[in-house]
Design a protein that fits this description.
single chain; alpha/beta; FAD/NAD(P)-binding domain; 2 domains; 7-stranded mixed sheet; 5-stranded parallel sheet; 17 strands; 28% helix; binds flavin-adenine dinucleotide; NAD(P)/FAD-dependent oxidoreductase
Amino acid sequence: MKKQLLDVAIIGGGPAGLNAALVLGRARKNVAVIDEGRPRNAVTREAHGFLTRDGISPSEFRRIAQEEISAYPSVSFVADTAVSIAGTNGQFQIETAQGQAFESKKVLFAVGMKDRPLDIPGLAEVYGKSAFVCPYCDGWELRDQPLVIIVKGADLMHFAPLISGWTNRFTICTNGPDELTDAQREELSQHGVPVFESPIRSIESNDGIVQQVVLENGTTVPCRGIFFKPELVTGSDLPRAIGCDITEAGSVVVDQFGKTNVPGVYSAGDAATRMHQAIAAASMGSFAAAAINNELNLEAWVRNTSEI
Ligand SMILES: Cc1cc2nc3c(=O)[nH]c(=O)nc-3n(C[C@H](O)[C@H](O)[C@H](O)COP(=O)(O)OP(=O)(O)OC[C@H]3O[C@@H](n4cnc5c(N)ncnc54)[C@H](O)[C@@H]3O)c2cc1C
C-alpha cells in the first residue's frame, strides 16, 4: 500500500478541522483533511451564532469552507473514515476504511462528538427541527414559546434559569426521578416552574414540529419546542487508541492550544471541549493549527541548525 506523506493529518472536517486546514494551508503545510461527513448537526436546517454565517445550513457552511481552502494547494480533502492510527511524534501511520494509507508528522483530531441513540419514542422525528440541545444555537427561534425541557438533577438547576432568558413558558419533564433536593424543588416552585417526573411515553409531532409530550401517567404537555440534554460519546475511538487522556464526559484532554498528552497529537472542537458551538470549534482549530505549525517549523529549524 503506497503511503501519502503529510505534515499534518486532520481527522474530521467540521468547523474545527476546516479552520485548522485553512491556517495550515496558508502556512504552506502539506495537509489532508480526512472526513467521513457525519457531523452531529447534520439533523438541523440552520446553524446560528457564527458571525457572517448566522442561519446557514451546516452543509453550505462546509461547502463554502472547502471552496475557500481550495485556494491553498497543499491541502487535500479525503472523503473517508480513518479507522486506525499508530506510530509516534514525527511518524504517525493512519489507515482509512477504503484502504488509503497516510504517514504524517502530526495529527489533529477534530472528530466532534456523537449522540448515543435517542431512547424517547418520537424524539428522533423532531431532533434538529423543533427539539434542540443548546439555547444559544436555537433559543431565539423558540423565544416566548411553550417549551418542554427534558433534564434532571444538577443539569436541571443549571438549565431552568438559563432557558428563562428566552421564555418563561416552560415545563420540566425529568423522564424518571427528578434527582432534586427538597430545597431545589422549592426553588422551582417559587419560580412557578412545573416539574413532571413521570416517564415520557412519546413525543407527538406534525412534520417535525412537536405538538405535545405524553407521559406514562396520562398527562399531556402541549408545547412548540423541546430542549434536552443528549448523551454523548467522542466522535471516534482513535484518540483513545493512540493514548490520549479522555474525560468521563468523553472530551479529549487538551491544553489551551489543543495539545494532548501524546506528543505530536492535538485535538480541537467539540471533541476537546464541553462548549459545543461552531465558532468555538473553529477557533480551537485555528489555535491548534498555529501550535502545530510552530512545532513543525521549530523542529525543521533545529534539524537545519545541526546540519550547518
Ligand atoms: C442539533 C444541533 C444543532 C446545533 N446548532 C448549532 C448552531 O446553531 N450554532 C452553533 O454554533 N453550533 C451548533 N451546534 C453545535 C455544532 O454543530 C458543533 O459545535 C460543531 O459542529 C463542532 O464542530 P467540530 O468540527 O468540532 O465537529 P463536527 O462538526 O461534528 O465534525 C466532526 C467531523 O469529524 C468526522 N469524523 C469523526 N470521526 C472520524 C473518523 N474516524 N474519520 C473521518 N472523519 C471522522 C465526522 O463525521 C464529522 O464530519 C449544533 C449541534 C447540534 C447537535
